[in-house]
Every structure is written in C-alpha cells, then in structure tokens.
C-alpha cells in the first residue's frame, strides 16, 4: 500500500485517473444514450441519479467483486444483459416527440434509471478490478478513484446527449461499445473456457452473433423491406452452425449411424442445407403477415 502523497501514491493516482477516463466513459455513454429521448428537465434528473447509481454500484462492487466473480455464470449473464441493453438503446423511439405528459415522463425516468443501473452493475466489474489493482489495496485511492469518476460521468453524459442531437450515428457507437463489452464478458466466462479452448473458431462466431443481435434494430430501421429478413436470418444461421459445433462431439460418442461414412455425409448435409427450408418458411410467414392484417 503506497504512503500518502509518495511517488508511488501519485503514480497510482495518475493510473486511476487514466482508468477512469477510459472506463468511466462507458458509463457516461450509456447514461447519455438512455437519457437522450427524455424531456430536458428529466434528462438532468436521469444524469444525476444515474451517476449516483453508477458510483453506488461501484462502491458496493469494490467490496463484493471477489465474491461476484466466483459466482458461476455471472460473466455469461452479464454479457447477455448488455446485449439486451444494446438492443433497447438502438430501438427507434417513435414516441419521443409525444413524451410530454408527467406520467409518461415519470415512467420514462424510472425505466431509464433501471436500464442505467443494470448496465453500470455489469460494466462496473472491469472498472472496479482495474482501480482495485492500481490502488494496491489503498482504501484512500479507491475512494479517490470513485470520486474522480463523478465529474467524468456527469460531463461525459451531457456531451453524449449533445453529440447524439448533432450526430445520431453516435447511438450506433454506443451499441457497438455495449456489444463488445458483452462479447468480452461472455468469452471470459469460466464455465465456457474449456469449450472455447477446444473450439477456437467459436470465438469468431460468438463475436459476429453478439454484434448481429445487438445492432439488429439499427439495421432493421435502415434496410429495405426485402432485405430486412437478413437481420434475423444471418444470426439464426450462426446459431444453427454453432449448435452443430456443440453437438458434434456428442454425436460421435453416440456411435451407430453417426460414426459411419453415410452418417457423416448426412450430418454435413443437414448442417449446410437443413437451414434453407427453415429460412424459406420464415420468409413466407413474414410475407403472409401483412396480408392477414389487411384481411382482418
């Protein structure tokens, strides 16, 4: 533990400031994106309470992080939660212009705050670990790290709102940041490590799958009607191929037809062609939906 105001203390403090600039920026980005569609007076409340929630969550996690990381499936669940939040942020807000009633603003405020707290709780793991490592066990440095992150988050949140007003594509950047963080948490899940080591290509498939699912609302809004099925079909194809990657070792252990040359050909045929009738059925059902709505 470095002595107060020693060279070691000051170098550790500088490291914590740099960590906050990088990692607290994620929190500012999330708070700003969540608050962007709320009325101006509600935005200030969301930024204040969102920042308060981020700091409170980090303070709690600084105490509990060692135990949290030992919970089986925590990293996987956190990564999936970030994918859900990314999709929620990128869904076009068609009611933004009409959210002027007090009841609507209050509901939006509560929903925004819940989204921010969940995102902060998940994304705060890396921040707490990084600050804890740089602080070398110094409670003073950990407290200073939390305090320094407050103005970064508040200022950064206001900056993000202004940038989104001017450059709406910043929302896509926020979704990409969440998708990358979600992917990194999923592949660091201890329960998945043995399988990922045995199947190196799975990391690439998971990365494409995470980004496809996370950013789907953005592309859906901008693709033509005929191209929109790709937003569902491409991730679904990856899931199909990943399912066969998982099932292959189990099929081999079952023996019988699956270990013969004919069985191998059948499995490969289903792997590469079996998804085609499913895709055709999905497209047909999608095309039938407007006709059914018109008849009713």
Describe the structure.
This protein is an all-alpha fold. The chain has a domain at 7-186. Helix content is 82%, strand content 0%. Helix 2 runs parallel beside helix 4, helix 2 crosses helix 5 (139-166) and helix 9 runs antiparallel to helix 11 (275-295). The longest helix is centred in the middle third of the chain and has 34 residues, at 102-135. The model is unreliable at 94-106 (pLDDT under 50).
What topology emerges from the helices and strands here?
Blueprint: H1 7-35, H2 40-68, H3 74-90, H4 102-135, H5 139-166, H6 170-187, H7 193-198, H8 201-222, H9 229-254, H10 261-273, H11 275-295
Helix pairs in contact: 1-2, 1-4, 1-5, 1-6, 2-4, 2-5, 3-4, 3-6, 3-8, 6-8, 8-9, 9-11
The 3D shape can be described as flat
Q: Level of helix content?
A: over 70%
In round numbers, the mean pLDDT is: 74
Structure classification: mainly alpha
State the total count of DSSP E strands: 0
Strand percent estimate? under 5%
* Distance from first to last alpha carbon: 72 Å
In sequence order, what are the helices and strands, one letter per element? HHHHHHHHHHH
Regions with little confidence, pLDDT below 50 for 5+ residues: 94-106
| Continuous helix count | 11
As a whole number of angstroms, the C-alpha radius of gyration is 23 Å
Q: How does the major sheet shape up? A: none
């Amino acid at each position: 533990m470095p002595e107060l105001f020693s060279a070691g203390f000051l170098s550790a403090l500088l490291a914590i400031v740099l960590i906050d600039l990088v990692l607290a920026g994620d929190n500012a980005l999330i708070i700003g994106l969540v608050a962007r569609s709320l009325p101006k007076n509600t935005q200030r409340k969301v930024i204040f309470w969102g920042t308060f929630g981020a700091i409170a969550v980090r303070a709690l996690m600084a105490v509990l992080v060692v135990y949290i990381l030992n919970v089986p499936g925590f990293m996987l669940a956190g990564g999936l939660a970030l994918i859900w939040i990314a999709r929620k942020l990128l869904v076009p807000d068609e009611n933004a212009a009409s959210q002027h009633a007090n009841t609507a603003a209050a509901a939006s405020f509560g929903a925004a705050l819940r989204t921010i707290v969940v995102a902060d709780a998940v994304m705060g793991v890396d921040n707490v670990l990084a600050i804890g490592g740089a602080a070398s066990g110094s409670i003073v440095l950990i407290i200073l790290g939390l305090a320094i992150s407050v103005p970064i988050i508040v200022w950064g949140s206001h900056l993000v709102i202004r940038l989104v007003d001017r450059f709406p594509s910043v929302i896509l950047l926020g979704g990409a940041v969440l998708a990358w963080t979600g992917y990194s948490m999923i592949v660091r899940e201890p329960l998945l490590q043995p399988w990922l080591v045995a199947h190196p290509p799975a990391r690439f498939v998971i990365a494409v799958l995470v980004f496809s699912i996370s950013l789907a609302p953005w592309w859906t809004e901008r693709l033509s009607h005929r191209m929109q099925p790709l937003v569902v079909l491409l991730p679904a194809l990856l899931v199909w191929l990943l399912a066969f990657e998982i099932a292959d070792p189990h099929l081999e252990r079952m023996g019988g037809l699956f270990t013969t040359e004919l069985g191998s050909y059948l499995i490969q045929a289903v792997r590469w062609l079996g998804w085609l009738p499913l895709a055709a059925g999905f497209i047909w059902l999608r095309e039938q939906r407007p006709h059914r709505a018109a008849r009713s």
